[in-house]
Amino acid sequence: KDLENIIESQRSENVKEGVGYNDVPHSAADLKYIERFKNEVETLKEEKDVVDGKFAPLLKSSKDLENIIEKGQNKHSTTAENGESTDNILSKPTVKFVMAGDRPAERPTTNKA
C-alpha cells in the first residue's frame, strides 16, 4: 500500500512538472501583494455596485425619454416646405452655403470729399 502511495505521489509530481507547475511557496512580500491586490479588487467591485445602483435609474429614465421623444415625433410630426420637421426641438438647423460668384458682394460706399 505504501509503495502505491509513493508511486502515485511521484506520478502527480511528474504531471505537475510537465505542465510547468511550480510548487514553490510564496514569499512574505508576494503574500502581502496578493492580499493587497485581493482587497483592491474587492473594493473596486463594491464601488462598481454602488455606481451601477446610482446609474440604473438614470439609464431607465434615458430610455423612457427616448421612447417619449420617438412617440412624440411619430404622433405630431409636421414638415415645412423644405421637408424639415417643425415640431422637433432636437433637430439641427440647416446651413446652406453659396459660392462667392453666385451673388455679387455689396459693399457700402462712402464718399469722402
From TrEMBL:
- State the organism named in the record: Tanacetum cinerariifolium (Dalmatian daisy)
Annotated Polar residues bias:
75-91
Q: Write out the ranges of the annotated region (Disordered).
A: 72-113
Identify this protein by name. Uncharacterized protein
